[in-house]
Structures are given as C-alpha cells and as structure tokens.
Amino acid sequence: MQSFVSTSTANVQNSPLASSRLLSLDFFRGLTVAAMILVNNPGDWGHIYAPLEHAPWNGWTPTDLIFPFFLFIVGVSITFALAGAKGQATLANGIVGKIVKRSLTLFLLGLFLNFFPKFDVSTVRIPGVLQRIALVYLACSLIFLKTTPRQQLYLLVCLLIGYWLVMTQVPVPGVGYANLNPETNLSAWFDRTFITPAHVYKPAKVWDPEGLLSTLPAIGTGLLGVLTGTWLRANRSAAEKVAGLFTAGCLVALAGLIWNSFFPINKALWTSSFVLLAGGLAMVVLALCYWLIDVRNARWGVLPFVAFGVNAITVFFLSGLIPRIMNLIHVKQADGTELGLKEYLYRSFIVPLFADPINASLAGALTFVLIWFGILWWMYRKNVIIKV
Questions:
Q1: DSSP 8-state symbol, 117
Q2: What confidence tens digit (pLDDT) does each residue in 45-55 have?
Q3: 266 - beta bridge partners?
Q4: What angle do the packed helices 312-326 and 23-40 form, to 10 degrees?
Q5: Is the pLDDT of residue 115 over 70?
Q6: Which of 50, 147, 206, 293 has the most beta carbons within 10 angstroms of its beta carbon?
Q7: CA angle, 100 as apex, 99 and 103 as ends, to 5°?
Q8: Nearest to 312 by CA among 21, 25, 27, 30
C-alpha cells in the first residue's frame, strides 16, 4: 500500500503508477510534514516564537515555506509515479481515473476536517490545505501526462506572469482599482463572490488563504516540482544533477526576491514572487538532500523523517483530527471550570515544567511531534503504509 505522495518509495514495476526509489524525497517530505505538525499544534496559540508563525501579510517566515515545499514535493513525486504512463492511452488504461479518484479522496478528507465536529453545512469552510493539495495534484498530474517539459515551463511562466498582471492591473469590482490589500484585492473578491463569506477561513472572514484564484499560482509551485523531478530522472551524472538543481534553485529564489520589489512576497495571496522564492529554496534543499542521502549515502537522522514521509497524508489528517476529538472530552477543574482533554494535559504536564510560557508552548508542540514519531516509526518498521 502507498499514498500518492509516497510514490517515490516503491521499486520500478510493470505498473505505470510505480516509481523508483528516491530516499531523499521521502526524507524531505517527512521533514516538511513534521514541520507542518509542529507549527499547527503549539501548546498555546498566544505564545509562539516568531519563526513559527506566518507573516501577517507581505513578507515571509520559515513557517510560510512549509506548505509550498509540500506542493513542490507533490510535483516531484508525480514525475516518478506517472513516468511510465506518459505517451500511453491514459483514459483507456484508467490512469486518469486513478488520478481523479485520488484527488477527490484528498478533497473530501480536507472537507471532512472542516466539517468536524459541528457538521454545519451553512458555515463549513470549503477550501483548505488538503483541498489545495488535491487540486494541485490533479492539475499537475494531467499536465505532466499531456505535455513536454518545455511546454510545462511555458505554462509555468504564463501562470506566474498572468497572475501578476491580473492581481495588479484588473480593477476589483466594488472597489474600482487593482490592489493587494487583505480584504479588497481581486483574490478576496473571488472568494467572497464564488465561495461566500460563510464558507471561507473564519479568522479572515471575507477571503481564504487557500482560495480560488490563488490556487492557480499554487499549481505553478507544483509545476516547479514536476520540472525538478524530470531533471532528477534524466540520464545525467549525480554531480551534474546536484549542481544544476542547486544553481537553478538559487537563481529562481533570487528572481523571486527581485520580483518582490513590485509584486510582494505574500503566502496568503500566493504571489508569483512567493512561488519563485519558495520553489527556489525547495530546489536548493532537495539538491542538498539528494547529494547527502542518495549520492553520499548518509543515513544518520534520516529514517525518522522517512517514517513521517511515507505516511505523510495519514499523519497530517490524523494530527488535525485527533486534537479536535480530544477537545470534545471535557475535564472538570477544581474551580468548577472545564477544559478540553488536550489543553488539560498540556496545562497539567507541560506548563509546570517551564517558567517561560513561550518555551512551554514550543515544548507542547514538540511533544506532539514526538508522539507521532513513535506511532509512525512503529508503522514504518511494520511496513504499514496507508493508501490514499
């Protein structure tokens, strides 16, 4: 069994969905998922170290890179998983059907997380992280199957330049001018109009960070991964692959920093400059991982993150679901007030160990990650890989 984002762990077989092994990609995926869990589960949302928070609007923090890194990895994985299907009659042999099924499964898993535990159709958030992963996976898989690398590069350029022009030149209905402000930009207008405020990210109220229009440049992030995967699969020496990928990553990230001067780096809008910065840095990180792990055969500290990587979607989904279930269990305090079980455990066993609340909050997040590591390590040792 294997998840679509774990396809790089399989050996090459006759199936067109099979793939060759790339341990560095599993490591990079696992590192990214572990970071996701860390930043999504602080002990106390009121006390968080600045690098573990998102930038308020323009700009970026290390936390802002986690989601685009994951989408980039999805793109790389697609090239390994679907390489055998290129040039085949994909409708006839069911490849497209399998891609659509996986995308729909991911979308519904994300929607279930948004529904739980209230299941209120009138206010449920429709977009989300898993929903965006589903859409990017669907688009990039079909693009990979039906286009050449050169066409993929052209499409990437068109997406990024087109999004920049649309966001900075098209007047926003009801506002009258193009702008990049939080509630009056064109992407926010799309979310209010086609999703409605009742079904977007509640803290933002009238727009969604995983909204409709910003999904287009997110597909560009996936395409950067697709192009990277094609480069790594090519018949070149390992040194050439690493040098080329590292150099390209530095240049792409630099282009993002230059573009930032007139199209600001912004994760919530997933601006084109953000795509290039995050994608370029992801290329650099993967080049280093590939050189150390797959070429130099480094293994120290690798397998724990591989355990996260081979069950990436499973741990992301359950790490979002289980805390919500725990908080449905109320524990009565001595003063008569009640706390959810997760908060009760945090206050009872983590907070008393630290004088500084921000360190206690970080310790709570690390504890959550370590608990998941124990579970995933057991699954990895038993070769339990849950299929999505």
A1: T
A2: 999 999 999 99
A3: 59
A4: 20
A5: yes
A6: 293
A7: 85
A8: 30
